[in-house]
């Protein structure tokens, strides 16, 4: 559960760090949004270091959680309801993440 919550926090930090420059570049919002974006991306990088497994495995498994959190963001922030295809894709991504993270130890 701790790992999953850490993955979710990591995904939120990355999404926020990318969404704020999007608001500036695509929606004409203030360039001051770049400051919290930088901080959010720094937080994202730091959160990735808190995982106990090898970095490459963490990055690969993190991708599955990122896809899921991104679709929740799509619904909650962009107000676009995910499709059945979106949900199927999340299921496949999370299955892949589970296979990577829950493999038997040697």
What does this structure look like?
This protein has about 110 residues and is mainly α. The chain has helices at about 1-25, 35-50, 55-75, 85-100. It has one domain. The protein has four helices and no strands.
Number of separate structural domains: 1
Arithmetic mean of pLDDT: 90
Q: From N to C, what is the helix and strand string?
A: HHHH
Considering DSSP H and I runs of 4 or more, what fraction of the residues is helical?
over 70%
The N- and C-terminal alpha carbons lie at a distance of 22 Å
Q: Helical region count?
A: 4
The largest sheet, given as strand count, sense and whether it forms a barrel, is: none
Instruction: Report the C-alpha radius of gyration, rounded.
Output: 15 Å
Indicate the structural class.
mainly alpha
Residue share in β-strands = under 5%
Total strands: the figure is 0
Described by the principal axes of the CA atoms, the overall outline is flat
Low-confidence residue ranges: none
Family: Belongs to the UPF0060 family.
Transmembrane segments: 33-51, 58-77, 83-102
Membrane topology: Multi-pass membrane protein
Protein name: YnfA family protein
Task: Name some characteristics of this structure.
mainly alpha, 106 residues, 4 helices, UPF0060, YnfA family protein
Topology, please?
Blueprint: H1 2-27, H2 34-48, H3 55-76, H4 84-101
Helix pairs in contact: 1-2, 1-3, 3-4
Structure summary:
It is found in: Cell membrane. Helix content is 76%, strand content 0%.
């Amino acid at each position: 559960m701790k790992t999953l919550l850490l993955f979710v926090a990591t995904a939120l930090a990355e999404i926020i760090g990318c969404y704020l420059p999007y608001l500036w570049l695509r929606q004409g919002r203030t360039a001051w949004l770049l400051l919290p974006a930088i901080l959010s991306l720094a937080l994202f990088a730091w959160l990735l270091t808190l995982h106990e497994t090898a970095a490459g495995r963490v990055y690969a498994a993190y991708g599955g959680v990122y896809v899921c959190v991104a679709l929740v963001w799509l619904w909650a922030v962009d107000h676009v309801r995910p499709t059945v295809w979106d949900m199927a894709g999340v299921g496949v991504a999370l299955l892949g993440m589970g296979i990577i993270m829950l493999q038997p130890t040697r």
